[in-house]
Amino acid sequence: MKNGGMVLYAYACASGLVALAALNCGSGVREDAKESPPQPEKSTAEAGIDPVVETDGGAPDAAIEAGTPRFATKPADWTLPVYGDGVYAPNQLGMDGCWSTLDIDGDHKPDLVATCDPAKFQTAFGTTEAPLWKVYKNTGTGFDRNAVDWPVPVHSKGLYATNLNTGSNVWTTMDIDGDGKLDLVVTSDPKGFYEPFGTSAAPLWKVYKNTGSGFERNSIDWTIPVYQDGISATSASTALGRHWTTMDIDGDGKPEIVITADPSTGGKVFGTSGAPVWKIFRNTGTGFDRTGIDWAVPADSGTYGINDANVSTADRQWSTTDIDGDGKPDLVMSSDPARSNVPFGSETAPAWKIYKNLGTGFDRSGTDWRVPVTPERIDRTSSMSSGRRWSTLDLDGDGKADLVVTTDPSGGDKPYGTDSSPIWRLYPNTGSGFDTTALAWKIPSQRESINATTSGDLSTSWATIDLDGDGRLDLVVTEDPDLAKHKQPFGTQAAPVWHFYRGTR
Ligand SMILES: [Ca+2]
Ligand SMILES: [Ca+2]
Ligand SMILES: [Ca+2]
Ligand SMILES: [Ca+2]
Description:
By secondary structure, the protein is mainly beta. Helix content is 3%, strand content 29%. One calcium ion binds at residues 103, 105, 107, 109, 111, 138.
């Protein structure tokens, strides 16, 4: 195996973590909308929400429409179990514990899953022969403070996390068979280093199905395609020109393996320059086909073509995202390769190019997708650098991903509005572009400003996720920003809580 310099990333995109972290990973955003229809509209009074008063520097901003309810103004307490020194983030894998917020029992509400015993370093609960996770089920107003035992398979290292990607320990939690419940998928043989199970001519993953109350302790062999050095993770992008991912590209509810680059050409897209293709390997429900089908992708002027599902470099920005909300991921090219880090179109009418998913390939003819005129130039689907923070996610709950700009580019890496009345700007998805007029999306005011949809690298933790499972994204602040507390939730040690701001309309 020549894996020197191998860089594996984005495996979380194929896992259940996606919808929760609100990352821009194609299918993650729409899952919520698909599984639970939007709730009936309520008046402001019924919803108990204050109307937004636009206070951006005193005078109303002409580009902002005010008066629509957003997140609940006052937080509700979201009960948490007592675990380790406190559950202060939606997901954690470290010295202070291992947990994930994901829907493990398949009832469309995320549960809190503790995967390692806080008294032992990176070791599952239970015994070596009968390992367990602890699941704190979602009650609709919190996580149950009492855990249920969740059996997990035996693995040499012990399955102490929902996802891991370190050489011989590569596994993930994803719904591989499309039955609506997350399965445990071990993609690399612990006896090797980034090598799948089986043989090089007949490689396999090991799948442990979700029974609704645990994972089967016996695996099934899941066939995977043959690809140079082996498909040893759900996705990878390597210096050796190997690029693949696992996603539901045809929208049938089951993920496919999508191989996007040909290592024999140094990592260029497959096909010809005029008719480039990816290779997709269909999911039969019991494995992936070993014979690939051509999937049309657009031509690109770069040396390698569209050779990965998601790319973010100085002169190339694209992602595989369901932009039109039809349930199938589209290819979205968000910066013009002729002008680095600038969208297509003109200064006064910027646009992305979208290549719609036709079910059997992407339309090779791009169509313009309007993006708003903003000082920071919206040249990618999401940005998490200081002062340039935005996300593409369905905040208004109509099933289509919206553009949400969460920092004011005029300085300070803060949201729009004022410290006491901060707002995000939401540009709704019209089905053929983003509305050029923003809605003011009121967000909570706290010591450390909420300047991104999910905190990511920031010191206080929060996330925009559908925590109560009603199909609307909520804002949850999981770490108390009080300076006297460090990496602690709200409440007390005996009765910890998150601050839950319900999403409403
Ligand atoms: Ca659940
Ligand atoms: Ca499943
Ligand atoms: Ca599929
Ligand atoms: Ca929307």
